[in-house]
Amino acid sequence: MNLGKYVNRKMGRVVLCLAALLVWAPLQVMAGTATVYVEGVPGGVIVNTVEINAKVIEIDHAKRVATLEDEKGETFTAKAGPKAVNFDQVNVGDTVRVALTEELVVFVDEDGVEPSTSMSAAAKTAEKGEKPGGIMAQTRQVTGTVTEIDQQNRKVTLDFGDGRKRAFPVREDIDLAKQKVGDKVVFSYTETIAVSVEKP
After folding, report:
1. Which runs of E-coded beta strand occur in the chain?
2. How far apart, in Å, are the Cα atoms of 65 and each of 88, 97, 100, 165, 168?
3. Which residue of 111, 125, 136, 195 shows the fewest CB atoms closer than 10 Å?
4. pTM (predicted TM-score)
5. Which pLDDT does position 139 carry in this prediction?
6. Number of domains within the chain
């Protein structure tokens, strides 16, 4: 198993899956998850964090590949990219700490922007000679339009402008009479991964 698949299994969430918890639905707290919303206001914020600690059990500096073992004994591989200029400092027995944070902010846009999807990313790695590590962040923003309001069943349907439509349950504290077809709902999802290496 490679690092990407391992991380995806630990933190893997797609924007709309998380959104199903947040848009207007009652929010459920999961381990490592914090949720915040204002009563009567559609949307809110959900933050999910996970920390993975793994020991380097095998390393190939020439191929820039390390085999890691987590606290449960599961092993996976990680390949260092060209920006990891201090990979040569990583050795068997070192501990790699990976902190993953997901944040989803959902709100009704009063300006009424059109349905769209955008993405941005940023990364910063340690300079040559510094302690190995770095941080990467990626943000995806999706906007949907309310196309249907089912007051009896307390659901709204959103159209994301690319053929996707999805119905979401509505929290009991939301006054559906104040919501209207054409409202724009924005989902802003940010995933941050911070990596550091500690010597034994």
Report:
1. 33-36, 44-60, 65-70, 75-79, 95-109, 116-125, 133-150, 155-159, 165-169, 184-198
2. 11, 16, 21, 42, 43
3. 111
4. 0.71
5. 92
6. 1
